[in-house]
Amino acid sequence: MSPNVRCATDDLGTPRHAGTLNRFSRTLRSPVNEDGDASEDSIKNLSRKPLTVTGGETCSIKQPKHKPRCEQSGQRGRRRMKANDRERHRMHNLNSALDALRNILPALPEDAKLTKIETLRFAHNYIWVDVAVCAGVALGMTELVPQLHHHPPEADINITVKVQFFIQTNSGT
DNA sequence: TAGGCCATCTGGTCCT
DNA sequence: AGGACCAGATGGCCTA
What we know:
Elements (H helix, E strand, L loop, with lengths): L38 H8 L27 H31 L11 H23 L6 H6 L2 H18 L3
Helix pairs in contact: 2-3, 3-5
This protein binds a DNA duplex through helix 1 and helix 2.
GO molecular function: DNA-binding transcription factor activity, RNA polymerase II-specific; E-box binding; protein dimerization activity
InterPro entries: bHLH_dom (IPR011598), bHLH_transcription_factors (IPR050359), HLH_DNA-bd_sf (IPR036638)
GO cellular component, one term: nucleus
């Protein structure tokens, strides 16, 4: 089942998306593999240019951001570097999971890549409408099911609210 | 050029 | 003690 789910307009509250909803026509920002593997991206970013940073635990001078702020030596330094490594790996895993989620969402134009927040909101909407369709079928609201698939986002909100209301009002019978 | 998104570093907190 | 998780800070990249 692959309902024509769209992101609700109010789910994308950032000014960038407000009104236009043109995220699907956006060009691909980073060269992630077509398989959704972020490894290439990660490699690219690991080799980024040195950055500068202010402040720090014991260092107040500007230092490259993607290098340790302070000279990592001694046990403390080793622990910090190990922790950084784990954190990097953890975030890569998180990104892999997001890519997997992107891959199972309804097809998008090839040059579009949902951002993290868009992916989560899209998935949320996708699940919600899917549940609403199942509930509508189960409750005999067959006239609403096609609308769930074909109405614009604004209508989706109204319909899902209607379904929710219907479920609530009929749950006791 | 501003704003959005992102990766990374970092210190803090909680848990085992 | 060490690992997992989190949030803040920072700066690069990209698009409008």
